[in-house]
Write a sequence for this structure.
């Protein structure tokens, strides 16, 4: 009931009709309805995740049932004979992601430290922009560049390294092979792609280091590097580990760029310059012509990929979460 | 604090000569700045090649004509793919934006620190890490198997990708709206839902828009979710519910795998078009968010 | 309750002979009010009456429950999950905490101005028009806005920039804007929770003048840390303090004395009141 009347502009209401407060109002239902709708929207996140797990497992079940545990322990993948052992692809996913981490983490950490500690104030924004642009490039464009430009260009490099150290024990186990489209190339492309996310998350973490700690180190005459080692790194260790794991998760799930440059050969080898395959790449390359159990097996690969990335992500978020609570509580 | 003090003392004592400390510091600085340079190189190379190899493809025909019947021949254009990317992404946005904003409203305005809200928040974070190919397979199993290859399946898959991103970024923006504004609205006799709609959302509008645009840019560039759900079409299809469509990302993927020069050139052209769209949205998003930041600081 | 006569001297009329008048009608009748946050008793046993067209001030040291009691009058305490009220607050005879009552309706009649000015990030016009639009006002909004701004002594300063953002105003102007915004919904009562503590002395003085003008039309209850302010503007003053609970080692707010402002500041009945107003503590 509005106290505003048409004839005078603004005048104080009188409380004489205080009794009207006791009359029921309809507005309260609006609040309850809105809350319900918002709650339902929040719930869809859980519903979708649950549905993903359920429906993909259901479609993949024929392949799981036939292969049993062999689905992930056997490396024999011959669709024509209904044999679906995914070990080679699991290996490929892990290997290419590890290569990506080895290449990307030092660079990402360096950029994160540079942006927060060493860069002149004017350069901080441009660094963020560069990372944004790197992150914005679609993965298929990285893949296109990888297969047409990088792979042919880097192949002579591989050949040269192979020639130089291919027969040397230990090192030769890795730096062997001559294929432009190989684990190594996939690792390089993945490294480029996960650098922005590892950098920006690490930067956020490093930015929470209290300046008191920094000043204490400088006050004792430490050089910048010594200050970083003494104050910044120990403090941000947990958060950085979390960021790296999130980068790992991203690398493992990356499909298109890897599919284009990894070479599509199902083989388990330590030779980094040889062609390989990954779970995601196999799915996208073989799905079009697959049918029946083959298709179910590919969906099964998707289930494995889903499970693995969920585990990596949940662990990473827990680590970052624990770090967050500690840094805010401390 | 004491622990760190010991560390620094130890470092200071360990250093054999002042010169070696300086050298280490120098090396570290080189590493940090060098990392930035290392990151810039691939960015420049990729953008450079896309520009260089793709620009020759752009023409009026490029934007308007259908794809050529025989992929190894030159000619034709990317009209259907451009339209496809726009329509499918738009469809995804129309579903993910309201759902995402409402979800964020639940998390911040109603759920707070409650148990259910914490679970939803955590799961939304986890969902951002689900590989896009898994989303594609998921929609394949629940939509495409039943309703066939069409643009809407692609929209569903992209929508699932966008949803958690929009929820988290919107929640951050709602958090930035000072609580005093809500109190002021309640004190005037405003209901909670109307407070959210008339005070909180307008106050957070710029930030929300920026987050949404970044999510759209990310979705527009995706390939894997579309490969299983939209099929392949050469001609223009404006109906996302009926029949296969194509998109720029899928075109790039297909053409990149062929050995034919003409097809690869088309791939570069499509890459340039796609990167153009994505960069435009990303830069616009940054502009919007920095304008909002300036207004709040004033 | 038989009407008592009190001696009321208006701050403006100095030297005029005090008149005996009947008491103005009671707007709020607070009976045995206790406010809990969860298990913690924040303030207890509050009994007082707020009279129409008067300025009533709550004073006292920090943490004694002044704001808590104030926020009971417009049920803003409802926004805190753990807040609980026992006792009664009768608003023209109606218990504000009657379960049938919708707090939203209460707030339409009892407005509030906060310690930190909180204009919406909208134009000055839209800030004032917010409340009326909410209530479905269909008449001439321009008139309403102008009237409210005039009543808040802000019209002349902003008449040329009504469409500009309210965030561009100074702190004192923003607070007067918030007062205008509250007035625009035509409340009977205006509650003010330390309205001047974020403002400089000149802005404070302008708002104190404004309060004197407003009281002829509205009933005002103000919480203030500044006892000189209470002495300057209010007709009646309530002094609160805290008492320590020996068992739980917590402090609970309690109303010590409530009387006409003159009496509180010149001849307080309770020793604690005297200590406070003479500055011996707090």
């Amino acid at each position: 009931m509005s106290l505003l009347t048409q004839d005078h502009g603004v005048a104080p209401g009188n409380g004489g009709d205080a009794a009207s407060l006791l009359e029921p109002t309809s507005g309260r239902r609006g609040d309850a309805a809105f809350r319900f709708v918002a709650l339902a929207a929040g719930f869809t996140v859980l519903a979708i995740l649950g549905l993903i797990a359920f429906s993909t497992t259901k479609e993949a079940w024929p392949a799981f049932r036939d292969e049993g545990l062999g689905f992930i322990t056997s490396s024999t993948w011959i669709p024509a004979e209904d044999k679906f052992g995914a070990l080679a692809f699991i290996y490929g996913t892990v290997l290419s992601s590890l290569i990506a981490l080895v290449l990307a983490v030092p660079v990402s950490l360096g950029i994160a430290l540079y942006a927060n500690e060493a860069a002149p104030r004017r350069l901080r924004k441009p660094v963020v922009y560069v990372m944004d642009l790197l992150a914005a490039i679609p993965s298929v464009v990285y893949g296109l560049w990888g297969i047409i430009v990088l792979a042919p260009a880097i192949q002579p490099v591989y050949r040269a390294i192979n020639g130089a150290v291919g027969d040397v024990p230990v090192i030769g186990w890795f730096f062997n092979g001559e294929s432009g489209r190989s684990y190594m190339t996939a690792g390089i492309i993945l490294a480029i792609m996960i650098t922005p996310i590892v950098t920006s998350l690490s930067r956020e973490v490093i930015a929470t280091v209290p300046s008191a700690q920094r000043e204490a180190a400088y006050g004792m005459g430490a050089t910048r590097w010594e200050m970083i080692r003494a104050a910044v790194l120990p403090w941000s260790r947990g958060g950085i580990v979390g960021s790296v794991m999130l980068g790992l998760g991203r690398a493992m799930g990356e499909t298109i760029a890897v599919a284009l440059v990894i070479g599509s050969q199902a083989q388990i080898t330590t030779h980094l310059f040889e062609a390989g395959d990954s779970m995601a790449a196999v799915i996208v390359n073989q799905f079009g012509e697959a049918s029946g159990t083959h298709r179910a097996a590919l969906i099964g690969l998707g289930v494995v990929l889903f499970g693995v990335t969920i585990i990596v992500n949940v662990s990473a978020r827990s680590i970052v979460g624990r770090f967050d609570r500690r840094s805010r509580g401390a | 604090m004491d622990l760190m003090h010991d560390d620094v003392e130890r470092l200071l004592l360990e250093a054999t000569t002042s010169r070696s400390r300086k050298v280490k510091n120098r090396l570290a600085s080189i590493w940090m700045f060098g990392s930035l340079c290392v990151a810039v190189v691939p960015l420049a190379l990729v953008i450079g090649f896309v520009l260089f190899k793709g620009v020759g493809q752009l023409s009026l025909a490029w934007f308007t004509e259908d794809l050529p019947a025989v992929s190894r021949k030159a000619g034709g254009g990317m009209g259907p793919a451009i339209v496809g990317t726009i329509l499918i992404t738009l469809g995804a946005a129309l579903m993910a934006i309201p759902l995402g904003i409402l979800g964020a409203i639940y998390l911040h305005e109603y759920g707070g620190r409650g148990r259910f809200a914490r679970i939803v928040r955590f799961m939304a974070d986890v969902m951002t890490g689900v590989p896009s190919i898994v989303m594609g397979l998921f929609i394949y199993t629940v939509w495409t198997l039943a309703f066939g290859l069409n643009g809407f399946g692609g929209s569903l898959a992209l929508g699932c990708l966008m949803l958690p991103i929009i929820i988290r970024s919107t929640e951050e923006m709602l958090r930035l709206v000072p609580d005093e504004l809500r109190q002021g609205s309640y004190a005037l006799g405003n209901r909670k839902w109307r407070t959210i709609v008339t005070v909180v959302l307008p106050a957070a509008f710029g930030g929300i828009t920026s987050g949404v645009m970044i999510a759209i840019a990310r979705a527009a560039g995706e390939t894997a979710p579309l490969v299983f759900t939209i099929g392949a079409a050469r001609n223009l299809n404006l109906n996302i519910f009926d029949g296969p469509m194509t998109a720029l990302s899928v075109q790039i993927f297909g053409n990149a795998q062929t050995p034919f020069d003409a097809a690869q050139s088309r791939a570069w052209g499509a890459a340039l078009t796609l990167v153009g769209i994505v960069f435009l949205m990303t830069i616009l998003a940054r502009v919007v968010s920095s304008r909002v930041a300036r207004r709040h600081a004033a | 309750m038989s009407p008592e006569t009190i001696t009321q001297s208006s701050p403006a009329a100095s030297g005029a002979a005090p008149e005996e008048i009947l008491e103005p009608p009671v707007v709020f009748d607070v009976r045995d009010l206790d406010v809990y946050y969860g298990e913690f008793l924040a303030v207890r046993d509050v009994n007082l009456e707020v009279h129409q067209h008067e300025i009533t001030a709550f004073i006292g040291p920090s943490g004694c429950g002044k704001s808590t009691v104030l926020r009971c009058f417009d049920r803003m305490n409802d926004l805190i999950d753990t807040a609980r009220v026992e006792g009664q607050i009768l608003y023209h005879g109606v218990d504000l905490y009657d379960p049938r009552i919708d707090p939203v309706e209460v707030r339409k009649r009892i407005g509030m101005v906060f310690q930190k000015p909180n204009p919406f990030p909208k134009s000055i016009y839209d800030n004032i028009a917010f409340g009326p639009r909410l209530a479905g006002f269909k008449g001439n909004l321009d008139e309403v806005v102008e009237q409210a701004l005039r009543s808040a002594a802000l019209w002349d300063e902003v008449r040329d920039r009504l469409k500009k953002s309210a965030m561009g105003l100074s702190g004192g102007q923003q607070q007067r804007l918030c007062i205008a915004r509250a007035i625009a919904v035509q409340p009977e009562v205006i509650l003010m929770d330390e309205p001047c503590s974020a403002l400089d002395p000149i802005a404070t003085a302008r708002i104190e003048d404004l309060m004197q003008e407003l009281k002829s039309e509205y009933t005002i209850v103000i919480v203030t840390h500044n006892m000189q302010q209470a002495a300057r503007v209010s007709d009646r003053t309530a002094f609160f303090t805290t008492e320590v609970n020996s068992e739980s080692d917590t402090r609970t707010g309690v109303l010590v004395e409530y009387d006409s402002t003159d009496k509180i500041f010149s001849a307080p009945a309770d020793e604690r009141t005297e200590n406070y107003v003479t500055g011996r503590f707090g």
Notes: The radius of gyration of chain C is 19 Å. Confidence is low (pLDDT under 50) at residues 1-17 of chain C.
